[in-house]
Amino acid sequence: MLADAGIVLTPQERAGIEVADFGLGSLDEIGLQVVVYVNTERVCAKELVLFPGQVCPEHRHPPVAGEPGKEETFRCRTGTVHLHVEGHDELVLGPGEQFTIMPDTLHWFQAGDEGAVVSEFSTRSRDETDVFTDPRIVR
Amino acid sequence: MLADAGIVLTPQERAGIEVADFGLGSLDEIGLQVVVYVNTERVCAKELVLFPGQVCPEHRHPPVAGEPGKEETFRCRTGTVHLHVEGHDELVLGPGEQFTIMPDTLHWFQAGDEGAVVSEFSTRSRDETDVFTDPRIVR
Question: What is the pLDDT along chain A (139 residues), one digit of tens a residue?
Fold first, then answer.
């Protein structure tokens, strides 16, 4: 799917793609595939790959160590992603469309029938501090 | 070049592509074409397009208002970019290769013979505070 989107990875990046099932054991339904390009103290950039219908479950990025939580912009590259953000109507993003989610705001998203490739531009990722609504989830 | 790289823009983004000649009036040699996806207080993401051999001239991003200067990661998507960073040997980045430039570090870059499309992931862009080595340059 990344190659079909015209995205080139290094061999190390290909070998290091993160496959997250959020501890629920049903990857095809609830999960996410992630390539982390960079994650410094200040900036993070990733590509997210979602299979058809796959869901990234509801969560938020709380403040950590006196800093505001993670702010992230999702930009759809291929396919369609349905984005649900606290306080907003459902957003449907197609290629070239994007939305910025402010810190500590609940959100979840689901790919459409063709799946989706989504670029994420954000402040530092601290996945271990994410707060998921479903208490069974372990990130 | 963006379309050839598989990158989809909205009509507004297409209409708003920034063409920077740095006030020197020789765009084909010294210049840069820029699509800004997002530029908040904390995060910025752009696509940079360089014509064959085109140069982005030497500059640095100094501290502003008590904050460290802009930190930026350049990731080559298509073509080749020759990156010159203070304190480093010349870097040649091909598709999928990237480099992170820390704040207040002099750098310049030039596209190879096919031009280049380069993604930039950074902290906030404040172009008006950039410091160029060539005193004729007005950003």
Answer: 999 999 999 999 999 999 999 999 999 999 999 999 999 999 999 999 999 999 999 999 999 989 999 999 999 999 999 999 999 999 999 999 999 999 999 999 999 999 999 999 999 999 999 999 999 997 6
Amino acid code (one letter) for B110: Q
Chain A CA closest to residue B98: A37
Residue A114 identity: E
Instruction: Report CB contact under 8 Å: B10, A38.
Output: no
What is the rounded radius of gyration, in angstroms, for the C-alpha atoms of chain B? 14
**How many whole angstroms separate alpha carbon B109 and alpha carbon B31?**
11
Say how far apart CA A30 and CA A54 lie, in whole Å.
Answer: 6
Report the relative pairing of strands B131-132 and B107-122 from DSSP bridges.
Answer: unpaired
Q: Which two tokens stand for residue A62?
A: 């709380």
Tokens of residue B101, six digits: 């430039």
Which is it for strands B107-122 and B98-101: parallel, antiparallel or unpaired? unpaired
Closest-CA residue of A relative to B9 is: A96
pTM of the model: 0.97
Q: Which residues of B75-101 are buried (b: 16+ CB within 10 A; e: fewer)?
A: bbbbbbbbbebeeeeebebebbbbbbb
The ipTM assigned to this model is: 0.96
Residues 6+ apart with CB under 8 A from A14: none
- In angstroms, rounded to a whole number, what is the distance separating the alpha carbons of residues B125 and A103? 20
Residue A15 touches partner B, C-beta closer than 8 Å: no
- Please report where in the chains the tokens 């030039």 appear, as a residue: B110
- Asked whether the beta carbons of residue A6 and residue B10 sit closer than 8 angstroms, the reply is no
Inform me whether the C-beta atom of residue B38 falls under 8 Å from chain A C-beta atoms: yes
